[in-house]
Specification:
The complex is a heterodimer.
Chain A: E1 11-18, H1 21-30, H2 51-54, H3 56-62, E2 74-83, E3 92-105, E4 108-118, E5 124-134
Antiparallel strand pairs in A: 1-3, 2-5, 3-4, 4-5
Chain B: E1 13-19, H1 24-32, H2 42-47, H3 57-72, E2 76-85, E3 94-105, E4 108-116, E5 122-133, H4 134-137
Antiparallel strand pairs in B: 1-3, 2-5, 3-4, 4-5
Classes of the chains: A alpha+beta, B alpha+beta.
Amino acid sequence: MKLNMQLVGRNYGPFQYESLQESILFFNKAVDAPIFHGYSETSAAHPIYAACFNQRPFSVALRDPELGLDFSRLLHAGQSFEFFEEIKPNLKIVTEGRIESIYCRGDLEFITVLSESRNSEGTLLLRGRYTGVVK
Amino acid sequence: MENTSLDLKTGHFHTLYKYISSEAPTLYAEASGDRNPLHLDASIAAERGMDGTVLHGMCSLAFMLSGLMIILGGNGFIKSADSRFSAPVKPGEVIAFKYFLKRAESGEFEFAVSARNREGHEVLKNARVIACDRRLRQE
């Protein structure tokens, strides 16, 4: 085990983000989000637009110098999301995350980061769980 | 695109194909802010044992959900999505997304999804999505 297990439970954030209409439109086009009658192109973001802000604690945790990660050996191995509200333009979003687990399976090391994003009223918008594998 | 009603029944099966363009990793990197060079720089990817750049796993997940959004129509709302990224997706590949509706009850739909490239390699594993009718959420 090369990753520092003592970092399990460490928090990252809060990180601020604003869901600008232009960034939603650009993201939706990049991932071929369908557009339906009655909805404008920017009325709601594609669910994975969440990656623009909810992924931040995962990215920062992996670069935590105390973690001891060789970034060149890391792969994003899995992902789960729970979506509670649609992301609309001009939301002020706050994201916080923590290292949920670090474990070994065979020769591989895994790290999971749980990340939650809320609007300015504190309403939970979505929860993401990010799994990285170190080969 | 039409707003179809969510008149889907358990056992519903749908296949959609997605061509991964050479621009897809760059577009996703610009849109998401994830500029990991593994996805953008072939020489860095080669250092990490890859045969050229690979698509972000999250972008594969996004394409999978875009396909499901087409099946659900404008009244669909994605409640949750889970997947393992089991093999790299390379620009130039065509991915077959197969959506199987395992459960449809009380306005909620649970899909099992497989995603394979032309060689038959599974690129998303154990993918599962739960969706619902957005009109029921607003009641």
